[in-house]
């Protein structure tokens, strides 16, 4: 898709003429600030991934028919995770969507050199660039909260991990060999926006067991005691408890054998037998 939103050109006489007939009493016109507020109120969720990558719809449909946690489901999720969105996608699609709302309400929005103008149905007025940018940020934030057609899976650590670098939450990410938790900013926009590193999910579980003094992870106990976990650099974590206590610790990379499932071990055994010319029974 072409990421080129088109503003009306104020230097073009046709732009002005097209609004002349709508000129009326300024006292009856909607204030420009109120128009921006109305725009924000009318914002609806946008499926950014589907707008940028049409193949997402087919992958999601395939995922619905696979057993959660199966190799095929993980493979599909891995393909979805590779379809990354950057800041340009969010900004341009948000602007295009705002322009559609503006046209629907018979308003106008245009850019002339470095200035942005808003038409309220009666007259044009310059709007502050920072105000417009905040409007775009709110539009992108509201649109990204709910993506139509995409299931929002929840995990024990969903909403619990907070990046100390940018303040955003960590999210679950399915990998080919291991699941991990990554900063939402870093994963969506890149390391230039947030340099935080991901955390292997197994390392999180093991660290929780050590901090909580448990032999087996219990989500009920974890959620009852822990308010949030702040993720710092150098693999440091700060567990913030609901009673006000804080515990700083450091997670360790799990050994390779520690994270192997029975299925992974069986695949490795078969591969070893095939490599060594052994006989595979059963």
Describe the model.
The protein has 282 residues and is α+β, with helices and mostly antiparallel strands. The protein folds into 2 domains: 13-145, no CATH class; 161-256, no CATH class. The chain is 42% helix and 16% strand. The protein has 11 helices and 10 strands. It has helices at residues 13-20, 32-42, 48-52, 56-64, 71-82, 87-104, 129-145, 184-189, 201-212, 219-225, 262-275, and strands at 108-112, 115-119, 124-127, 161-163, 170-173, 180-183, 199-200, 226-231, 236-241, 246-250. The strands form 3 sheets. It has a 4-stranded mixed sheet with strand order 4-8-9-10. It has a 3-stranded antiparallel sheet with strand order 1-2-3. Helix 4 (56-64) packs antiparallel against helix 5 and helix 6 packs across helix 7. The model is unreliable at 146-152 and 278-282 (pLDDT under 50).
Short description:
The protein has helices spanning 13-20, 32-42, 48-52, 56-64, 71-82, 87-104, 129-145, 184-189, 201-212, 219-225, 262-275; strands at 108-112, 115-119, 124-127, 161-163, 170-173, 180-183, 199-200, 226-231, 236-241, 246-250.
Strand content: 15-25%
Radius of gyration, CA atoms, in whole angstroms: 26 Å
End-to-end CA span: 51 Å
How is the largest sheet built, in terms of strand order?
Answer: 4-8-9-10
Helical segment count? 11
> Uncertain runs with pLDDT below 50, 5 residues or more?
146-152, 278-282
Shape: elongated
């Amino acid at each position: 898709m072409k990421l080129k939103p088109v503003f009306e050109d104020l230097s073009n006489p046709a732009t002005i003429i097209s609004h002349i007939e709508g000129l009326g009493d300024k006292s009856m016109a909607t204030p420009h600030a109120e128009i921006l507020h109305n725009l924000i109120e009318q914002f609806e969720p946008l499926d950014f991934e589907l707008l940028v990558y049409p193949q997402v719809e087919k992958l999601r449909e395939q995922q619905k028919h696979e057993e959660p946690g199966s190799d095929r489901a993980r493979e599909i999720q891995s393909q979805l995770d590779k379809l990354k969105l950057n800041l340009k996608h969010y900004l341009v699609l948000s602007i295009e969507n705002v322009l559609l709302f503006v046209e629907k309400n018979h308003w106008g929005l245009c850019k002339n050199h470095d200035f942005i103008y808003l038409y309220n149905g009666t007259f044009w007025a310059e709007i502050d660039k920072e105000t417009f940018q905040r409007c775009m940020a709110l539009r992108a934030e509201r649109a990204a909260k709910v993506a139509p057609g995409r299931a929002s899976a929840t995990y024990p650590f969903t909403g619990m991990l907070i990046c100390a670098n940018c303040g955003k939450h960590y999210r679950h990410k399915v990998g080919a060999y291991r699941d991990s938790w990554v900063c939402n900013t870093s994963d969506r926009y890149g390391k230039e926006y947030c340099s935080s590193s991901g955390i292997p999910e197994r390392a999180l579980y093991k660290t929780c067991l050590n901090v909580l003094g448990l032999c087996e992870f219990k989500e009920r106990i974890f959620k009852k005691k822990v308010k949030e976990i702040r993720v710092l650099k150098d693999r440091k974590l700060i567990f913030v408890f609901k009673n006000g206590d804080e515990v700083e610790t450091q997670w360790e990379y799990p050994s390779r054998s520690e994270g192997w499932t029975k299925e992974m071990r069986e695949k490795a055994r078969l591969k070893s037998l095939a490599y060594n010319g052994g006989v595979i029974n059963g």
